[in-house]
Amino acid sequence: QVQLVESGGGLVQAGGSLRLSCAASGRTFSSRPMGWFRQAPGKEREFVAAISWNGISTYYADSVKGRFTISRDNAKNTVYLQMNSLKPEDTALYYCAARPLKSGYSDDVTGYDYWGQGTQVTVSS
């Protein structure tokens, strides 16, 4: 069982930055690929970024590539999402999620076993 708690969301002006954190409970965090997703009102949940269980490989949606950076600290059971050059269209509820143990990459919401409750990011123009 894995419990995930996101933090770091807030209100920021366009062009600003935020760093989201996702703290995980349990002893299997370091063996699980992790992902960030987001969901805007009236829209489906969409993939943002993913990172392999060992942190070596990262993947990004085209819409955030070059602006967002995913990273992890397995010693702290935490995954991060650094968001720079934020745009109003980045406004959404951001979720972190955990994949099955030592699995591969996935950008599909159905490929994740555990989800956090989300943290709101609002970017004003």
What does this structure look like?
The structure is a single chain. By secondary structure, the chain is mainly β. Helix content is 0%, strand content 46%. The protein is built from no helices and 11 strands. The strands form 2 sheets. Strands 2, 4, 5, 6, 9, 10 and 11 form a 7-stranded mixed sheet that branches. The protein has a 4-stranded antiparallel sheet with strand order 1-3-8-7, with no helix packed on it. A hairpin with a 6-residue loop joins strand 5 (46-51) and strand 6. The chain is globular and about 40 Å long. The mean pLDDT is 96.
In short:
With 125 residues, this protein is mostly beta strands.
Secondary-structure element string: EEEEEEEEEEE
Tell me how many strands there are. Answer: 11
Taking Cα atoms only, what radius of gyration do you get, to the nearest Å?
13 Å
Strand residue percentage: over 45%
Output mean pLDDT. 96
Could you estimate the helical fraction of the residues in percent?
Answer: under 10%
Residue ranges: pLDDT <50 for 5 or more in a row? none
Distance between the termini: 40 Å
Number of helices: 0
- Structural class estimated from helices and strands: mainly beta
Coarse shape: globular
Q: Can you summarize the main beta sheet?
A: 7 strands, mixed
Give the oligomeric state of the chains in this entry, treating copies of one chain as homo and distinct chains as hetero.
single chain
